[in-house]
Amino acid sequence: MRLFTLGILGFALTCHCVTAQEEFVPRRQDKPPGPPLSPQDAIANMTVPEGFSVELVAAEPQIQNPVAMAFDERGRIWITESFEYPRFEAGPGRDRVKVLEDTDGDGTADKVTIFAEGLNIPSGIAIGHGGVWVANAPDILFLQDTDGDGKADKREVVVTGFGRDDTHELPNALSWGPDGYLYGLNGVFNNSHVKQNGQDFQFTCAMFRIDPRTRKFEVFAEGTSNPWGIAWDPEGSAFISACVIDHLWHITESGYYHRQGGPYPPFTWKIDSIVDYKHQLAAYCGIEYFDSDAYPAEYRDRLYMGNIHGGCINVDELSRSGSTYRGKLAPDFLTANDVWFMPVAQKIGPDGCLYVLDWYDRFHCYQDARAHPDKVDRGHGRLYRVRYKDTPRAKPFDLTKESGDELIARLHSPNLFYRSLAQRVLVERTDAATNQKLAALVLNDAASHKTRMHALWSLVGQGTLDAEFHATLLSSPHASLRAWGVRAAGNSAKVEDGLRHKIATMSADESADVQLQVAIAAGKIEGLDPLPIWVEVLANSGDDALIPHIVWQNLHPTLGDRAKEFLALVKAQDLQASPNLKKIMPRVTERILVNKK
Questions:
Q1: What is the pTM of this model?
Q2: Buried b (16+ CB within 10 A) or exposed e, 482-497
């Protein structure tokens, strides 16, 4: 009788809590959210294009409050969970890293391992170079399992200094770039101060990167708002999703982009987004460049982005516009029809399908979480797969056990998942014999463009290129190879005289992509005077929309000491025939006049 009475009391309390929740209308919602749906009912509510279906990979209690995800070399799924959100204080917490496995090949996770505990809002994760990289502000951590028991037993603080002023904008989106660096993002209201090797990096909204071999930290670009997702296209260009302001941005090294708020550094010439339209309500999270033959052609080579307020997976198409891009609105890919749906990450899986990680909470905005921390949901979380017809399940694999030749064969895969993963493993191998085969593949005109680029990145990610091969890249008839030859030289900083002299002449290259990379690399390569190169790039870039912004961000800090030299170089040019050089001159004048005051 006592148990029955307690059960009735518990039921009454539960009903009272639900009623109280239903009376509360969270921000950016027009009515009470109602109770959560079961995973099965949530899937039944979703709409996807004809021929597609949504499948459940994992759900509570397997995963709860999931924030970030990554796949490893065996196809296992690594997920971070946060019960501490929206906690401001740093220090140990209750949060975890979990590993999900599908051991019987039926498409659902049936084995869950807790890899690491004691974390505090782990907001990004990446696998590589012998361990697991986790954004756990104020730190970026490198966790390793050294005894093979499936649990982290070694912890390294790679860099520290990320803020916790706004735990909605913590360092996030840890992603391997095509150049082998680990990239991440930080939000506009999260002041950060990283100190390393005598350098101070003070920033808010920014894209940063870390060399996994040397641990060197760099701010790659600055601006936007609360960016939360990085994707790379077949040229190796970076795209990010952002909230409140425009949702889609092409990010270039040394660029400074429009800020949601806060001051710009003096003389900044900001860069705008690549869209002039919006999807539903502006709260975006995650982004993936989808490239897999598991879907029909019309769904490939597009950007897929989570829309939290809109309860959708939005889609954007890309088209080239000189050295940058323009976005084009495409139909939504998935609509949840459930206000609790919060798609925080999207990734291509080994089966070529799109995987969607769902935080699943009634609160979309940090303001509600701060005001009502007792109402933040702590018990839900889902991972979905969007499957086209009877797309086959992925067969078991382990890229760490594959030979160099087998990994190179993976670079021909129509699924970006395998190309990118094989590329990373090849970077980590640094095998001389395999590298010779990769170089031959890069220069093989019979191979597909995508395959050749991944072969190139497999070499670039290892560090300094072979000088003869590097020279061949810089003289290639293919602009993509030339551009990456320049970019690789900039990353290396030290290159042979012949390569340095060649790059100095490439300011007149016919490709805007190459000119853009020359403008960036000119100030990074030792022994190269960037001033005449920047003038030549401006003179030869026509009216390209991005190049003058990038040149200016690199040029203006030098004008305090070299203004007369710069003006002499400009005098030798025809301003009327050089729109970008003409466009930049009012800024040069202002900069010089300020120096004279």
A1: 0.94
A2: bbbbbbbbbbbeebee
